[in-house]
Amino acid sequence: MRRLRLVQLLAAVCLGAIALPGAASAASIYNAKTFTLANGLQVVVIEDHRAPVVTHMVWYKVGAADDPVGKSGIAHFLEHLMFKGTPSVPANEFNRIIARNGGTDNAFTTLDYTGFYEDVAAPKLDLAMRLEADRMQNLTIGENEVTTERQVIIEERRSRIDNEPGALFAEQLQAAQYLASPYRIPVIGWRHEMEGLTRADALSYYKAHYAPNNAIVVIVGDVSLDRVRSLAEKYYGVVPRRDVPPRLRPQEPPQIAARRVTMGDPRVRQASWTRSYLAPSSRAGDTKLAIPLMLLADILGGGETSRLHRALVLGDGIATSAGAGYDALSLDLSTFDVFARPKQGVPLEKIEAGVDGAIADLLKGGITADELARAKTGYRAGAIYGRDSNDATARLFGSALVIGLDVESVESFVDRVDATTAEQVENAARAVFDLRHSVTGTLSPKPAS
C-alpha cells in the first residue's frame, strides 16, 4: 500500500532513475501487446521466457482519492476485505491457495488506483486468473470479518503513521499542499473516519468500482499472447460489465501563498527540512513538463553527483543528506520535492538557505551538458535493468495505463527522454520553483511536555 505519496517520493529518490525508466523503454525491450475483452477489460501481455514464472496483476481504476467524503480509507479497507472470500473460496483461503501452489500474492492501494498481484509458476497462471476473476464479481463479506479487519487497519495506521513522526509529518505536509484535491487526505484514512467504516460502505464501494470495464490486467513472464487471450476469455470474459461512476474530483484552485508546517516531536532523533512545490504530472497541468521535471529531479537531487548533494553535503558540509523527488505518474497535479537533513548543530534556517541557493544557481546558470547526459544515461540504464524483473515491469506498465496513458507512451519513454533539451529542463524549473505554490516543512526534536 502506498500510504502517503510524499513518503514514497522521499524514499524513491535513490531509486528514481531505476524505477520510472523501467516503465518506458524501446519496443525492442518490452514489446508489450494489448487487447480488450467484450466486457471492457484491458489485458496487457509482456512475454519473457527466461524463467518459467509469471506475474499477474489486476489494476482497478479507483484509489483513495476517490473515497466518498467522510469515508476516508474505504479504498484501502476494501483492499483488505477482498481477501475474505467468495462462495467458492472460503474466507482467508485466497493466500493459502496461492502459497500451496508455490506462489506469493499481495495487494496495494494508492491515491489513484488499487492493485492485486500473484507471482506464480507459469503453469499456475490459470489458477491466479480464476481466483481474481472470482473475487472481481463474487466477494462475500461477513459482519464479523468487517469488525476484525477494521481493527487491523486502525492498528496499521497506529504502527505505521501515528507512531512514526516522519510519517505524521509527511501527512501534514500533504494536507497543507492541496487546498481542494483529495490528495490532501491520507490513503489509509483519518482515524476518526476509519473507525466508522461499515460493511455497507465496503460493499457499496465494491459494487460501484470493481468491474472488468474499470480494470486492467497486466501479465508478464513465460506466457504467450494466445494462451493469455484464451484464459482471459475463459475467466474474465464471463464477468459482466457494470456502470461505473465518473471520477469527478475537486481540482486545485490557483495557489497564491506560500505555506509552512512546523512540527516538533520528542521521538525525533534528527531534524529534517522539506519543501514541496505543486507541479504538473503526465496527466494534469502542463503535461509537457513531466519528462523535463523527471530529469530535473535527478540533476538537482538524484544522488551523489546531484547539485544538492554537492552543495550541502560535500561542499558546505552542513547536511548529512539532501535530494529531490518527483512523481510524474499521477492522475491529478503532483508535487516536486526537495529535502535535506542537517548535521548535528546546524540550524534548519541554514539548510533552507543552502537549498534556496542551489536552486537559484540552477535557475541563473542553467544545467550543463554533462548533467543532462548523466541523467539521460541513468534512465536508459534503468529501462534495461528494469526488464529483469517481471514484477517491476508489470507495476510500471500498470501504473501508467491505469491513469490513462497508453502502451505506446510507455514504450516510447526513453526516446522522449533522449529528445529532451537543456532548455526544456530549465523552463520546467522556472515554471515549478514558485514559492507561492509551495509548502515548506520542518521536523525537529521537541522535549516532552
The low-pLDDT segments are: 1-27
Radius of gyration: 22 Å
How many individual helices?
Answer: 19
Question: Total number of β-strand segments?
Answer: 11
Name the strands of the widest sheet in spatial order: 1-2-6-3-5-4
Strand/helix succession: HHHEEEHHEEHHHHHEHEEHHEEHHHHHHE
Structural class: alpha+beta
What is the makeup of the main sheet? 6 strands, mixed
Q: Can you give the mean pLDDT?
A: 92
Distance between the termini: 34 Å
Tertiary shape = globular
Strand proportion, as a percent range, falls in 15-25%
Percent helix, as a range, is 40-55%
Characterization of the model:
It is a single chain. The chain is α+β, with helices and mostly antiparallel strands. 43% of the residues lie in helices and 18% in strands. The chain contains 19 helices and eleven strands. Strands 1-2-6-3-5-4 form a six-stranded mixed beta sheet, sandwiched between helices. A five-stranded mixed beta sheet has the order 7-11-8-10-9, with helices on both faces. A hairpin with a 5-residue loop joins strand 1 and strand 2 (42-47). Helix 12 (290-301) crosses helix 15 (369-386) and helix 13 (307-315) crosses helix 14 (348-365). The longest helix is centred in the middle third of the chain and has 20 residues, at 143-162. Residues 1-27 have low confidence and may be disordered.
